[in-house]
């Protein structure tokens, strides 16, 4: 069995930013031939997004772009032009999967309309990833991370009560929507293999966040009418303690939801008597405002020890307490190193890269790095001339007219 489980799958990726490229990356890292379509002369907007080496902006050295586009081949094309539309149609005929981010009201929507594409090729899987999906009153609207977080309800739980709500950090809507899109696409490919039929996949970023992130909010609201989870040190409806405690060289995440864990924690800090105090038996009620008689001894004990000392004792006591690592510590951590958290990638004109790997391990068909992220238009000749049969003189004319 080949290690590249998707080696016989060709994917056309017509999207930029986070969600669609991350979906394409996940498929490409497992062997799919992902062809990334970018705007001539401009490319994916993440090429303009840092970090950059030595903080010098360069479209071929964006850390975000390089991380999101490993193992892809890259071409430039403007399908809005008549010739570009014809070339896109030729590419579609070679594909098994189309990834796109067009909403029903976008000018490009007719290019990636699933029903029309699948009339010509019923096997096609057409995956769309947009802020609000392909139907519903907001489906034609554009959106951002902020609006997806707001509509999903996630922002209701982020921030302080006396300040505005916040969006989730680090493009969570895009990454989680991309992961959902990749999972759904692989399922659709299984159906395609069994039945010979493709299908349309509709991923809404707001739906993904609402499903994966805000379920606890919904449960709290339905059961006891709690509307907001913002502004609580320990988080509403949690069992004390569930918070970050400062220690001698940083912070520890401290929790002990089970009563036996709570008893072991109090014994570890030398205060087993607190477990016997009936005032502190209902730890849910005190989660948002713990009594000083309980919280101060806990805080003082953590402050007297280092993260390593605390973590060692907690492992011995079987307590779910963990240190908060700085990023340099995280990169060097033996657990993540053993699991291949960072992958080495060689790329022209730039030193060897260490980029985040995938959050999944398959024993028989592991992901691997075959190609670095493509240069803008790097594979135009290979795709257009060598594979589709266009003459190089045509490619020259396309460059001059802005087609590719």
Automatic annotation (TrEMBL):
InterPro entries: CoA-transferase_III_domain (IPR050483), CoA-Trfase_fam_III (IPR003673), CoA-Trfase_III_dom3_sf (IPR044855), CoA-Trfase_III_dom_1_sf (IPR023606). The keyword NADP does not apply. Pfam families: CoA_transf_3. Keywords: Transferase. One of its GO terms (molecular function) is CoA-transferase activity. It comes from the Bacteria. Residues 40-59 are annotated as: Disordered. Gene3D superfamilies: Crotonobetainyl-coa:carnitine coa-transferase, domain 1, formyl-coa transferase, domain 3. This is CoA transferase. It comes from Candidatus Entotheonella gemina.
């Amino acid at each position: 069995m080949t290690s590249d489980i998707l080696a016989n799958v060709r994917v056309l990726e017509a999207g930029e930013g986070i969600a669609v490229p991350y979906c394409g990356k996940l498929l490409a890292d497992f062997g799919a031939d992902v062809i990334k379509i970018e705007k001539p002369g401009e490319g994916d907007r993440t090429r303009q997004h840092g970090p950059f080496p030595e903080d010098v902006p360069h479209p071929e050295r964006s850390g975000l772009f390089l991380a999101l586009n490993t193992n892809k081949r890259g071409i430039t094309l403007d399908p809005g032009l008549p010739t570009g539309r014809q070339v896109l149609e030729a590419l579609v005929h070679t594909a098994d999967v189309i990834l796109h981010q067009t909403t029903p009201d976008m000018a490009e929507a007719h290019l990636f309309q699933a029903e029309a594409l699948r009339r010509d090729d019923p096997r096609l899987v057409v995956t769309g990833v947009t802020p609000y999906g392909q139907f519903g009153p907001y489906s034609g609207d554009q959106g951002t991370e902020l609006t997806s977080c707001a509509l999903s309800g996630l922002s209701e739980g982020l921030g302080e009560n006396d300040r505005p709500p916040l969006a989730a950090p680090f493009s969570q809507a895009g990454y989680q929507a991309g992961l959902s899109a990749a999972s759904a696409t692989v399922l659709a490919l299984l159906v395609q293999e069994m039945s010979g039929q493709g299908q349309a996949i509709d991923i809404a970023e707001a739906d993904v966040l609402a499903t994966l992130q805000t379920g606890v909010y919904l449960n709290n609201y339905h059961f006891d009418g709690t509307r907001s989870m913002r502004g609580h040190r320990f988080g509403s409806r949690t069992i004390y303690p569930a918070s970050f405690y400062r220690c001698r060289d940083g912070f520890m995440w401290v929790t002990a939801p089970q009563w036996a864990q709570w008893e072991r924690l109090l014994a570890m800090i030398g205060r087993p008597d607190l477990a016997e105090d009936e005032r502190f038996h209902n730890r849910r009620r005190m989660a948002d405002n713990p009594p000083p008689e309980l919280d101060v001894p806990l805080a003082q004990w953590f402050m007297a020890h280092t993260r390593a000392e605390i973590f060692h004792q907690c492992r011995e006591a079987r307590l779910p307490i963990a240190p908060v690592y700085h990023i340099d510590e995280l990169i060097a951590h033996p657990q993540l190193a053993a699991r291949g958290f960072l992958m080495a990638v060689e790329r022209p004109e730039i030193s060897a890269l260490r980029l985040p790997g995938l959050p999944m391990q398959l024993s028989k068909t592991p992901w691997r790095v075959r190609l670095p992220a493509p240069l803008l238009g790097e594979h135009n000749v290979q795709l257009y001339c060598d594979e589709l049969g266009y003459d190089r003189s045509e490619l020259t004319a396309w460059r001059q007219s802005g087609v590719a």
